TrEMBL record:
Entry superkingdom: Bacteria
Domain N-acetyltransferase: residue ranges: 111-241
InterPro entries, alphabetized: Acyl_CoA_acyltransferase, GNAT_dom
Organism: Lysinibacillus louembei
The organism's taxonomic lineage, starting at the top: Bacteria, Bacillati, Bacillota, Bacilli, Bacillales
Name the UniProt record assigns to this protein: GNAT family N-acetyltransferase
Length: 241
């Protein structure tokens, strides 16, 4: 059995597909003229340390890359800096392994956890009003997302998680989760993440958990949920020329 599902592997293989410009044990450079404008340059560093880059021919030309000429991650990033191309801050990307997926799919949710609907507008509004703007921005949990689950304590919504299909051509569902500060450390987030992930699996989707590299609390939560690091993903910034 492979570590991650074929759905996950196929998505990243298709995202980093094209003409292999350079490849060794540590670094791979791929040219693809069909990338979306917003993703015309992407970098994926998998958990085993292999760095893969995919870019349009235009960017490859700007970087003055020569086919088959040895190139390392350090050289590549130096070239980006020289011509002013910026990348968004990297995201950690976590998934459940195939083994853990089996456990998630057979778990029984606790009675204080349920799916939220449009009938929960007032409950969710109170939840949002009790959270900081920074927490709301970081978590990106919305009641109108594809699926929303919540955990209740003291007769109020203590933690919520929502997810949405990450793109049109994949079965990955990107999720966010937020626990109100007074209810943290009580296991709400772990249970909600696993409950909404079970729902995603029932609908034929793979849950995807992302967070920035310096978000230690979110990384700790991913580990508590038994998610496994797949890699780090970077995409070109809209501020780049």
């Amino acid at each position: 059995m492979t570590l991650f599902s074929q759905t996950i592997i196929d998505f990243w293989d298709s995202s980093f597909n094209g003409e292999i410009f350079y490849n060794d044990d540590y670094f791979c450079c791929i040219i693809n003229p069909h990338l979306k404008e917003s993703r015309r340059l992407m970098v994926l560093t998998t958990a085993n340390g292999k760095v893969s880059v995919v870019m349009t021919p235009t960017i490859a030309t700007k970087l003055q890359l020569v086919k088959e000429q040895p190139i390392s991650e350090e050289i590549f990033r130096n070239k980006l800096e020289e011509i002013g191309i910026l990348l968004h801050s990297a995201d950690h990307i976590f998934y459940f392994t195939e083994k853990e997926k089996e456990k998630v799919c057979t778990e029984t949710a606790t009675k204080n956890i349920r799916q939220l609907t449009e009938q929960d507008v007032e409950v969710f509004s109170e939840f949002e009003n009790s959270a900081s703007e920074q927490d709301l921005d970081d978590a990106y949990v919305e009641l109108d997302h594809w699926a929303v689950f919540g955990s209740f304590a003291e007769e109020r919504l203590a933690c919520a998680s929502s997810m949405y299909p990450w793109s049109d051509n994949t079965k990955l569902a990107d999720l966010g989760v937020l626990t109100l500060s007074q209810f943290r450390g009580q296991g709400h987030a772990r249970k909600v993440v696993r409950a909404i992930s079970q729902y995603a699996y029932e609908k034929g989707y793979e849950p995807q958990y992302r967070c920035q590299l310096d978000n230690t609390a979110s990384i700790s939560l991913a580990k508590a949920c038994e998610l496994t690091l797949f890699g780090q993903w970077e995409v070109i910034s809209p501020d780049s020329p």
